[in-house]
Amino acid sequence: MDELRCARALRHHAGAVAAVALLHGVPISAGEEGEICLWEAGAAAGAGGAPILTLAADGPVAALDASSPGGHLVSAGWGVEGWDMAAAQRLFSLVPPAGGGDEDGDASAGGGGLGFNCVASGGSLVAAGRAGQVVLWDVRTSRCVGAIAAAASGDAAAAAAATHEPSKRRSGSSEEGGASPVAGAGSAANALAPCVGVQLDDWKLVSGWGPSRSLAVYDLRSLSGGAPRAGWARPALELLAPARVTCFRFHEQVLIAGQKGAECALWSFGAPSSAPPEPRGPSLPPHLAAGPDGGGGADGGAEGWAGGGGGGGRRRKDKKGKPPAVPKGGDRRYPKRRTR
């Protein structure tokens, strides 16, 4: 680790570099000027040079995603675009809706006109997040299938209340009387809350808005079928972290989130085991653990010897009422008596 040092300085962008990604090991960068650059990873140390490929987006690029199933690149800024890097061409351009999303996923309400700051792809869906909203498209039809508004969770409402508490005290309004200014302020705060991030796979989408301690999990399985169920845009699960969430990432069933400060929070979506763990203590002798007839443990051995009815030390009888014969050479309960 002490040998690590900067191998190359890549200089081409006219604006600030806003996003980077790795596609099959190829470094990709995107700048505020709207250019997407591919660089040669195996160039000699210290070598400069121009990128091996440049693509011009329709506007500033703020986020990149290289995890699409087909190995394509997705960029987001004022809009969302998909790129075939092997053919160096644009595959699709997804138009953002004019508004935000209400609680039923309608893409005609609230928060439009702002650029996207995060993007993710999974299956046939692409999701991009901006202030107060996450928009989803089906890339097979380039159609917007819905939008998710910033969840007005209890944590967000509390943050909004704390933010506007001084103004409420100055206005002299009480918590019980009249229209509460905090409710309107909370709605406005949710509409402009920055999107912390977005990620999705074949069944779920995770997003968060700041400043908040919560992450929302949405069930997307009905979107791929073309007939979204009612209320799909409401969170199926809300994860509450001990502190404000600044970033997150999940892989399969494990999610990790960075928090304001120096700690991370970890969750698992895996179903807990239905069988409780076996108590750890002194082990039984093999002949008792396996039972006299080869199975069942201590309780099973008792049932095997008592025939399930608590009959002391009798062996279990077969259907004819006779005890099973002991095989020759096997364990015997009593030694054979020698007679003349």
From TrEMBL:
Pro residues bias spans: 274-285
Biased composition (Basic residues): 313-322
Domain of life per record: Eukaryota
UniProt feature, compositional bias: Gly residues: 292-312
InterPro entries registered for this protein in UniProt: WD40/YVTN_repeat-like_dom_sf (IPR015943), WD40_repeat_dom_sf (IPR036322)
Comp. bias regions, Low complexity: 174-185
Ranges where the record places region Disordered: 160-185, 272-340
Record protein name field: Uncharacterized protein
Source organism per UniProt: Monoraphidium neglectum
